[in-house]
Design a protein that fits this description.
The complex is a heterodimer of chains A (117) and B (113).
Chain A lengths: L3 E4 L2 E4 L5 E7 L6 E6 L5 E7 L6 E2 L10 E5 L2 E6 L8 E8 L9 E3 L3 E5 L1
Parallel strand pairs in A: 2-11
Antiparallel strand pairs in A: 1-3, 3-8, 4-5, 4-9, 5-6, 7-8, 9-10, 9-11
Chain B lengths: L2 E4 L3 E5 L4 E3 L1 E4 L4 E8 L5 E7 L5 E3 L5 E5 L4 E6 L8 E9 L6 E2 L3 E6 L1
Parallel strand pairs in B: 2-12
Antiparallel strand pairs in B: 1-4, 3-9, 5-6, 5-10, 7-8, 8-9, 10-11, 10-12
Classes of the chains: A mainly beta (117), B mainly beta (113).
């Protein structure tokens, strides 16, 4: 299985600023994803982080607001830009397992709890 | 595209009583099914999954789920819950040839003493 860490675990930010969240996986994975979980809600996929190329965004999410990088197979960053209180959420990084007992299983990081004032 | 419906947003249950969390999905292709658990202030953990084979799958902590293709359901059950089972439970599906999870709305289980 893959172990995923995220930094920071939580932050309180001012309106109009930006925050970059880091995600590190302890083994090589095929795909990495970023999700948002708004208070009391389920998870919504923001984008698929592609290694060495632009991320693939889901409907309702754009690169200018949520730029994503994935420079290698085990690391990705998500930036929440020009934040507003509506961006207050938990942001989760996820990775897709390779073949074997964890085939097609997604592992999740502990999440970054963001509060925007 | 797939969709997932968890019919109960909250399920209060007494300790040592049974619990069932309902999950129905919609898909035009074959899918894999998952249940994730999120304990308070923690990330998601995989509880169990169905990929193929036996339609009844079990977790190490007493939960089980049964895949019913005709009913397009994957309900989660536990015969006797503990206080520590208090958490939010998410049902999720992924197309067998795909790579994106679709989550249900979640069911919050509150186990009362």
């Amino acid at each position: 299985s893959a172990v995923i860490s995220q930094k920071p675990s939580r932050d309180i930010c001012q309106r109009g600023t930006s925050l970059t969240i880091q995600c590190q996986v302890d083994s090589q994975v095929t795909m990495m994803f970023w999700y948002r979980q708004q208070p009391g809600q389920s998870l919504t996929l923001i984008a698929t982080a592609n290694q060495g190329s632009e991320a693939t965004y889901e409907s309702g999410f754009v690169i200018d607001k949520f730029p994503i990088s994935r420079p290698n197979l085990t690391f990705s960053t998500l930036t929440v830009s020009n934040m507003s209180p509506e961006d207050s959420s938990i942001y989760l990084c996820s990775a897709l397992g390779l073949a074997g007992p964890h085939y097609n299983e997604q592992f999740f990081g502990p999440g970054t709890r963001l509060t925007v004032l | 595209a797939q969709s997932v419906t968890q019919l109960d947003s909250q399920v209060p249950v007494f300790e040592e009583a049974p619990v069932e969390l309902r999950c129905n999905y919609s898909s035009s292709v074959s899918v894999y099914l998952f249940w994730y658990v999120q304990y308070p202030n923690q990330g998601l953990q995989l509880l169990l999954k169905y990929l193929s084979g036996s339609t009844l799958v079990e977790s190490i902590n007493g939960f089980e789920a049964e895949f019913n293709k005709s009913q397009t359901s994957f309900h989660l059950r536990k015969p006797s819950v503990h206080i520590s089972d208090t958490a939010e439970y998410f049902c999720a599906v992924i197309a067998a040839a795909g790579n994106k999870l679709t989550f249900g709305g979640g069911t919050r289980v509150l186990v009362k003493p």
